[in-house]
Amino acid sequence: MSEKVDVVLIGGGIMSATLGTLLKQLQPDWKIEVHERLSDVAQESSNAWNNAGTGHAALCELNYMPEGPDGSVDPGKAITINEQFQQSRQLWSSLIDRGILDEPSTFINATPHMTFVRGEKDVAYLKKRYEALKDQPLFAGIEYSEDSRVINQWAPLLMQQRRKGEPFAATRVPAGTDVDFGALTRQLFSHLRDQGVEVITDREVRTLKRQKDGSWRVLWRNRLGGTPGHTDARFVFVGAGGWALKLLQKSGIPEIKGYGVFPIGGQFLKTTNPEVVAQHKAKVYSQASVGAPPMSVPHLDTRVVDGEASLLFGPFATFSPKFLKKGRITDIVAQVRPHNLLPMLKVAVDNPSLISYLVGELMKNHSKKVDALRVFMPTARDEDWELIQAGQRAQVMKKDPKKGGVLQFGTEVVTSADGSIAGLLGASPGASTAASIMLGLLKTCFPDRMPAWEGELRELIPSYEQPLNPRGEAARASVEKTAAALSITP
């Protein structure tokens, strides 16, 4: 069985859904195919229960604005991530206007973003962070308090039975959001199907081969019945989570040399007790413990999935050699190549604290995990909370000219020199910045098409190529407009 298409998207997550949607708006005559190995889309990292749905905008996440060795704080990265999330908001707003997305409350809800810290050192840091952000247009409305009465109004569960005399502080941004990326992904793929895009599930891509004419032969096998076949495509995007590395390695592109991934799983404590859930409407982040990776920053989150509110606390790291929640136990070994072995070994040598952290996390039982929650919520009861398994995160390891190898926290697009194939590696802020990541991919892979596409891109994402934060009035207007379109005005 063989067919030829313009684009193959591998993986049924938010990245493929976003890229497919953009391409269908920009080039409606292109034939696009999506190959997903599981029985439905949005079953791995894009699934609502496999992530925290924070809508990462750097409003509350301290790891996007670390304190420097001299005690200074630089808002640059936080501003960049917020800019990227604003582009996602703009795209979703445009897609609602075009009837592509459903009622906003089906995938996004207003949820204040907070940061809560304890101890004199962290209180001093949070105050500096607040001072650095409060005059930035995209962070307008951020509030700071060390007053227990004020913090109790913002998030009562944080303050009940709190020990007297303990220094603490909090920031709050009422305009934060909770995003159900699973629902969002399913809606985008539903529209793509309506537009003639073949979204094929239970199809596992096995390898990728470059053809003489520069196109790619995507060799696959249907999981039901085992039927093999291939599809030829002018362009391939590998948005397959941790499996992206495996497929990019099989493609043979030199750009993937030196890359490896380290899989880290996660668990959350979850409660649906209505008495507890009713007392907390916020996403509250704090500092990561010493040696913990940035993705393990503890947070107590309101979640709204399928219209039902619950609370999540975590994450608690787990270890599995699988690159996906439903991957293979051989994944971590199968990635090893002569070109990435040394960088990966260097990462292992240079990050003993990460190994110690993972061992410590694996030794925690349910009661110990609720003890960690009590740092946030002193009144937490063991019986109110259950453990749920979250998704797998494949953290990027890669060559570094100075260190030999580094562990990178974030997302990275790897693209072939001719732009005919690209894949996404990494994790947070990931889904929240999908629009921005895919805009960058379009510029890299389709430079000759960009002049013709620019007008439509500005219709979909008005701040395309025009950062908002340096333009205070434009930033305010954009935030207000998208808040109204998405029904998330606090």
From TrEMBL:
Q: What EC number(s) are associated with this protein in UniProt?
A: 1.1.5.4
Keywords, A to Z, come to: FAD, Flavoprotein, Oxidoreductase, Tricarboxylic acid cycle
* Catalytic reaction equation(s): (S)-malate + a quinone = a quinol + oxaloacetate
- Name of one Pfam family that matches: Mqo
Q: Which cofactor does it need?
A: FAD
Pathway membership, UniProt? Carbohydrate metabolism; tricarboxylic acid cycle; oxaloacetate from (S)-malate (quinone route): step 1/1
Top-rank taxon of the source lineage equals: Bacteria
A GO biological-process term: tricarboxylic acid cycle
The reply on keyword Oxidoreductase is yes
**Top EC class of this enzyme:** oxidoreductase
- Molecular-function GO terms, alphabetical: (S)-2-hydroxyglutarate dehydrogenase activity; L-malate dehydrogenase (quinone) activity
Q: Which family does it belong to?
A: Belongs to the MQO family.
Q: What is this protein called?
A: Probable malate:quinone oxidoreductase
Q: Which species is this record about?
A: Microbacterium imperiale
